Amino acid sequence: MSLLSEFLKQADEGYMVIDREGILSYANEFLIKMGLLRQEWQGRHFYEVIKNLNLISLVSEAINERTSKSGHVYFEDKELSAKVFYTEEGLLVRVSDITPIKRYERSKREFVVNVSHELMTPLAVLKAILETLQDEELSDHARTLVEKALMRVEEMSQMVRDLLTIAKLESGEEKLEKHPIRLRDLVEDIFVRFEEMAKAERIELINEVDQDATLYADPEKMVTMLKNLVDNAIKYNKRGGKVVIRHRLEDRWDVVEVCDTGIGISKEDLPFVFDRFYRVDRSRSKDIPGTGLGLSIVKHIVLSHGGRVDVESKEGEGTVFRVFLPHIM
Ligand code: ADP
Q1: What does the pLDDT look like over 34-53, one tens digit per residue?
Q2: CB of 236 closer than 6 A to ligand 1?
Q3: CA-CA distances (angstroms) from residue 140 to 20, 88, 126, 146, 147?
Q4: 278 CB less than 6 Å from ligand 1?
Q5: Alpha-carbon distance values, 31 to 11, 83, 132 (Å)
Q6: Does residue 261 contact residue 237 with C-beta atoms inside 8 Å?
Q7: Cα–ligand 1 centroid distance for 278 (angstroms)
Q8: What atom of ligand 1 comes closest to residue 285's alpha carbon?
Q9: What is this structure's pTM?
Q10: pLDDT digits (tens, 9 = 90+) for 170-203
C-alpha cells in the first residue's frame, strides 16, 4: 500500500478520489503543482477546491448521471485529458497533461499544410506546361510521355488536396454544419460526376436509395465521403461491372452501402485499407492512379459524425463499404 501511495505521489498524472457526496478523500501532488487543486483539499467538497470549471462540470456530470465521463480540460495554457471513473463507492479522477503531444501534433499538421501549399503552385505550373505541350505536334513516343507525366502530376495534385483535407479534419478546427440531406438526390449528384469515368469501362451506376431516406449530416463532408467510395468502386471494378448504393435503417443507425462487383480486397489487406497511404500492392492495381488517402479521409469523416465504417470483400467478386451514421429524427 505504501508503495502504491509513493507511486501516486510521484506520478506525472493527477489522481483524486471523491466520495458520492462530492467530498475529496485523496489527491496527489501533481494536481496541486499544476495549480488545479487548492492546497487545503482534505475533507472539502470538490466545488470548493477544484480550480477549473471544465473539470468541475465533468465531475458533476459523472455524479448526476451516475456514469464514467471523459473529456478535455483547458487550464491556463495547458490541454489536459481527464477521466472520471464512476463506481458505487465514489469517483476516481485521473488527469494527464497532453499539452506536449497536442503541440507536436499541431506542428506536424502545420508542416504538412505548409508543404502542401508550397507544392500547389509548381504543380499547377507543370500541369499547364504539359497541357500546352499536348497541343503541339508530337511524335507518338513524346505524346505518350507527356500523357504519363500529366497523369503523375494529377496524382500528385490529388495527394496534396487529400493531405490538406486530412490536416483540416484532424485539426478538429472545422465545425460540422449538419443539415437534413436527401440521400437519393445526393447519390444522383455524385453519379453525374462519375458518369464519364463509369461509361469508359461500361460500369453501371445504380441508385437504390429510397426517395425519403434522409441523413442528418454535413453535406460537404458527405459529398467528399461518397466521392471517395464511388471513385474506388469504379476504379477497382471490372469492365461491365456494377456500383450500387443502398440505404437502410438499422436500430438507431442510418446504414449507407456502396457495393461493387470489382476485383475485391484480400483478407490480409482488409484490416489496413483505412490506414493512411495504404495501397494494396498487386500487379493488377498498379496502374490504377491513387494516393492511398481516400479511405482514411472517409474514416475521419464518419468518425467525426459519431459513426463508423466497415468493409466486406471477396477477391474477384466485389466489395461492400458500409457507413453507419447515427440516425437523427
Ligand atoms: P487509393 O487512392 O489508392 O484508392 P484509398 O485509401 O481510397 O486509396 O484505398 C486504399 C486501397 O484500398 C486502394 O489502393 C485499393 O487497393 C483498396 N480499395 C479501396 N476501395 C476498393 C474497392 N472498392 N475494391 C477493391 N479495392 C479497394
Answers
A1: 999 999 999 999 999 999 99
A2: yes
A3: 81, 79, 21, 10, 11
A4: yes
A5: 10, 14, 65
A6: yes
A7: 8
A8: 16
A9: 0.74
A10: 887 778 899 999 999 999 999 999 999 999 999 9
